[in-house]
Each structure stands twice: as structure tokens, then as C-alpha cells.
Amino acid sequence: MSNTICRPPAAGRLSLLAAALVLALATALAAGGPAPGDATLEADPIASPARNAVWRAIFARPATAPEPAADTAARIALGDALFHDVRLSGSGAVSCATCHEPERAFTDGRPKGQGLDGTTLARNVPGLYDLAWGASFLWDGRAPTLEAQARFPILAKEEMAGDFPTIVRRLGADADMASRIAASFPGSGGVTEDAILAALAAYVGSLASPETRFDRWIEGDEHALDDRERRGFDLFVGKGGCVSCHGGWRLTDDGFHDIGLPGEDDLGRDGRRQFKTPSLREVVHTAPYMHDGSIATLEEVVEHYTGGRIDRPSLAPTVVRDLVLTDDEKAALVAFLRALSSENPDHVGVKTVRQVAP
Q1: Tally of CB atoms within 10 A around 221
Q2: Fold match between 15-59+210-338 and 73-205?
Q3: Would the pLDDT of 6 be above 80?
Q4: Domain extents for the chain?
Q5: Does domain 15-59+210-338 have CATH number 1.20.1050.10?
Q6: Residue 44 above 60 pLDDT?
Q7: Is the alpha carbon torsion for 349, 351, 355, 358 positive or negative?
Q8: What's the pLDDT at 53?
Q9: Largest separation between any pair of C-alpha atoms in the chain
Q10: DSSP assigned state of 320
Q11: What is the CATH code for 73-205?
């Protein structure tokens, strides 16, 4: 049984984004217009069709998903059932969906996750959309595959506190579940840890974020974004420098950065205060923000980057120093960020639907 998650190497994706940015610059200059990020663009986002065409290529959703052929509909449906199955927890009282609520874009709406017995966990619950394209998982990237991402919280004593001998015994005693697992993973030996994790990975890998007005604008619908939202887009890819970390259609570089948040207890990846760049897809539905849930609103996120952060030697070089935005610019940027979310607030009907062709 192969559990391989197909994805391009991180370095390759970053190189593609860098190349795309160079292409954007070259195209703009060749067209006789200003380069991306030029102040004149922020003043008039409609003035450069050639430049917009390049950005649209960069942010276009892919036509296909990096999905192994073995991830059949049956495996995805099995993973969905296991995702909501409390038998994966030691207490038999919580499931993956307890913290990753489909109605909240697979987050839980709390600053930090809630563990067993109501204890507060160390970090914010990350969303699960579009992870089939991811390079590593969890805020510190310690999970190299979707299978590993599922395994960590199942075994964590403060989260689900499960153990696989007990989980295998519980599920094996359920004739229907045992039959589904055997049918989905023929030759795997029936109910096994590997089969359970592979089914969960198949389900999570099937979660593609819903289409947004931003996607429709990228596809060529000039009326999908209003003037203020397009000004916000220009700030996003220009003066604000947001695109440096939130580039590409998933709006993340899958990298790890220190963005100047306070706090001394959680030092993140390798003790360097670096945390994974979250996708901005469905950002309206995933508040509060940051790895520690310390920022409640999108307006406060913008304030963080315009003077609210802590400047220190480890601050990511991609963070624009001394960024100053007017009130109108801040409002435009927030308006654009809101356009990155669907208008389906409860996400009913999209939680297991792949939005791109298999």
C-alpha cells in the first residue's frame, strides 16, 4: 500500500514564484508601464492590463490536484468517517472534527485549541484546506506528510490521547468499518494504523477551498472585485509586500518566518521564532490569527505590519520595514483580504468536495 503524497519540492515551488515575479517585472517594463509595486499602480489598479495578466497567471488555481491515483472516492469517504469518529481518541469523546470544524473552515474559532478536559493548547488550530499541495504541516512543519499530520494529534496526550492498538481493536470490532477499510486498502491486512492514517490523509487531501470572488477576477471577470478591493490587491502585491510570503494561488509560500510577534515561551521551528506561513484562503472564517491566535481581526493584522510588530534581528527579511499606510489604504487591503474568502459561511456542501478536476 502506497501512502505517498504527491507534491512538488518546496524549493521548486519557491523558484517558480520567484521566476513569476521576475516575469511580472519584465512584462511590465516591456509594456512600457510601471513595475509591480510602483506607487502609480497603487493609485490606479485598472491602468495596466498586461501587468494584471501576469499576476493572474501567478494566482490562477491549478487545473488538477496532486492526488495519488489510489485516493479513490471510497478512501476519501472512509477518511471523512474516521475524521468524525470519536473512537480515535483515548476517551472516546473527541474526534478530529472536534477542533477542525467544517463550519469554521476546519478551525475552531478560539485563539488556541482546546485540549482534553478543557485545557488550552499551545497553538491556534490551523485550517486544512488545500493541503494536498503542501510541503510540510503543522505550525512548525514537523509533519512531513498528511499521514504524519494526522498521527501527531491522535497520539498527543493533551489532544486526543489515543493509542493505535486500542484504535485498531475498536474499529476492528465494528464489522462495517472493518469491511470498509479492507475494501479501501486491499492487501493491507485489514484494520491497521497505516490504513487509518492513509484514509485520513486521503480525506484531508481532498479538501479544496471554495471558489471566491478573487478567483473569478483572476479568471477574467473584471466585475468580481470592486475598485477598493483591486486597490487592496495592488497594495498586497506592491507597497505592502504581502505577496513575498503569501504568493501563488494558495496564498502561502509554505515557508517559516519570524513576523515580529511577542511571546517568549513558544520559539517555533528550530527555536528561531519561525512559524509556517498560513494560507489566506477562507481567512474571514479562520479568525483569530497567527500561530498563537493573538490577533483577533484582519484590521489588527494590518496594524501589526504597520508598526505593531517587534523588530528584532530574526525578523523575516520579507517583512517590509517602516511600512506606512493611510486609513484608506488599510481599508482597501482589508477589503481585498475579505475577497479571498467564500460567501458560504457554514461551508456546507464543500467539506469533502474537490474543487478541481482529479
Answers
A1: 11
A2: yes
A3: no
A4: 15-59+210-338, 73-205
A5: no
A6: no
A7: negative
A8: 85
A9: 70
A10: P
A11: 1.10.760.10
